[in-house]
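Reminder to self: tokens first, then the designed residues, so the page reads top to bottom the way the pipeline ran.
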């Protein structure tokens, strides 16, 4: 029972970090219809900035600067790449983000090198005992921070002018443009928000029990991709629910890998994708995705 409780807590912590990443995928898709495959590089960039600056300016300021610069880089990608191909097909823009990811990841891998970069987080390797349950402080912090950040995101999405414009543009871009909503600005802000969320997620992906930030950290963003697909690419709530499901699935598969050894040693790596496929077989648009209606 203790192992089960610890595994659930680890799954919730992992799911909360995945939620930050998955929301980035969803908010860009809702704003521009583009599947941003450069998201992992934005995550690595934000984490890299935080790792390099925390000794000089402190942890929290470094995280804020990392989030701001990741947001600026995401906005620059949107301005130079997607807006430069105005009128292009959505799949063309999506493929373009793959090229952007290759360029960014190549340079970031060169900068990071073969070392593990510490994030300077105040939790370090500390753990807390809750009765008989032991949980890393970094895991608990990830849950708290994710709740605060995601809560602020949903509040802005629900009540801010940008959130209203975002929802209007996602529902009917042509009608929104006719009503005076500047779609380019909405899309730019969406990309910036996604970049900032990715930078915050990078901090906890590199925190204990992980050894630190390295070149493979950006690949973890792909682990959050099933969460966005599972919940529905046009649903922010779906991204949150899908992330918790994927996080719990990954934690359970890793925690009970000995009991699941009959399924193969690498089952924990494929379990989230298996869940995604099973759900999509029943609901092709995801748990909360909108069904496309065609009038004939």
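Designed residues (296 positions):
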């Amino acid at each position: 029972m203790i192992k089960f409780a610890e595994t659930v807590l680890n799954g919730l912590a992992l799911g909360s970090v995945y939620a930050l990443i998955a929301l980035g995928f969803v908010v860009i898709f809702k704003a521009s219809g583009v599947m941003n495959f450069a998201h992992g590089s934005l995550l690595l960039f934000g984490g890299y900035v935080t790792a390099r600056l925390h000794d000089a300016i402190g942890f929290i300021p470094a995280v804020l600067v990392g989030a701001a610069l990741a947001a600026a880089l995401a906005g620059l990608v949107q301005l130079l790449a997607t807006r430069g191909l105005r009128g292009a097909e959505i799949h063309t823009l999506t493929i373009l983000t793959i090229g952007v990811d290759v360029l960014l990841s190549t340079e970031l891998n060169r900068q990071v090198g073969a070392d593990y970069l510490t994030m300077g987080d105040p939790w370090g390797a500390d753990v807390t005992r809750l009765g008989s349950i032991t949980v890393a402080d970094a895991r608990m912090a990830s849950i708290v921070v994710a709740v605060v950040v995601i809560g602020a995101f949903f509040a802005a999405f629900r009540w801010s002018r940008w959130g209203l414009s975002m929802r209007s543009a996602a529902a009917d871009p042509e009608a929104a443009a006719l009503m005076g909503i500047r779609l380019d600005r909405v899309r730019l802000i969406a990309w910036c928000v996604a970049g900032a969320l990715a930078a915050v997620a990078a901090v906890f992906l590199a925190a204990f029990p992980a050894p630190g930030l390295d070149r493979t950290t950006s690949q973890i963003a792909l682990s959050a991709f099933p969460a966005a697909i599972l919940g529905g690419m046009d649903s922010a709530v779906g991204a949150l629910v899908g992330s918790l499901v994927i996080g719990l699935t990954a934690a359970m598969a890793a925690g009970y890998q000995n009991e699941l050894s009959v399924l193969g040693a690498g089952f924990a790596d494929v379990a989230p994708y298996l869940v995604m496929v099973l759900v999509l077989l029943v609901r092709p648009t995801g748990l909360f995705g909108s069904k496309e209606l065609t009038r004939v």
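The longest strand covers residues 127-130.
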